[in-house]
Amino acid sequence: LFDVRCTNDVVEYVDLFDDGLSGPIPGEIGLLISLMHLGFFDNNLEGAIPTEIGLLSLLEHLDLVGNNLEGTIPTEIGLLSSLTELKLTTNNLEGVIPTEIGLLTSLESLYLENNVNLSGPVPTELTKLSNLRSLVLYNTQLT
Do the Cβ atoms of 103 and 127 come closer than 8 Å? Predict the structure, then answer.
């Protein structure tokens, strides 16, 4: 299923659910500066989450659940000041949760479960997220 929505020829919504996509997320994703929703749920994407994701300042929902993404969560995620929902569940992400996630003051939901190589302490900066309602971290090595 795919859903791409535009307003005045500007892409604002991309949701490509279980479409058999493979390969890396291209850095050019950062050119979609009016994007408010990006969903690549349950595909075969691999490689790292591109740092250019931080250029999507209007992004409210980021759903990369159920892929084969690896590497660390980029610190540039902290630039997504409009983000309310971050779903990175069931990938191969590793390392620590970047403290920059604590800058996401609009964040309501953070899903990082089933990334068995995420490790280290949960950053205390998450306590600054007064709108956070859902925090799901099981099946990781976070402490």
Answer: no
38 bridge partner residues: 14, 62
Structure tokens given for 124: 């205390």
How many other C-beta atoms are found inside a 10 Å radius of the C-beta of residue 112?
A: 24
**Residue-wise pLDDT tens for the chain (143 aa)?**
679 999 999 999 999 988 889 999 999 999 999 999 999 999 999 999 999 999 999 999 999 999 999 999 999 999 999 999 999 999 999 999 999 999 999 999 999 999 999 999 999 999 999 999 999 999 999 99
- Count Cα atoms within 13 angstroms, Cβ side, for 53: 24
Beta strand spans in 1-143 (E): 2-7, 10-16, 22-23, 37-39, 44-47, 61-63, 68-71, 85-87, 92-95, 109-111, 117-120, 134-136, 141-142
| pTM of the predicted structure, to 2 decimals | 0.94
b/e for 50-88, b at 16 or more Cβ within 10 A? Answer: bebbbbbeebbbbbbbbbebeeebbebbbbbeebbbbbb
